[in-house]
Amino acid sequence: MDSKREARAAEKGGVSCAAVDLDWVLFDADGVIQGPRDGWFEELTAWGGSRADEFMLAIAEADMSCLTGKDFGAAMRGVLSQFHIDAPLEDVIDQHFWIEVRQPMLAAVRAVRDLGLRCALATNQQNMRGAYMRSSLGFETIFDEQFYSYELGVAKPDAGYFQAIMNRINVPPHRVLFIDDHEGNVAGASELGIYSELFARDGGVPVLASILARYGVQL
Question: Can you give the pTM of this predicted structure?
Answer without folding.
Answer: 0.90
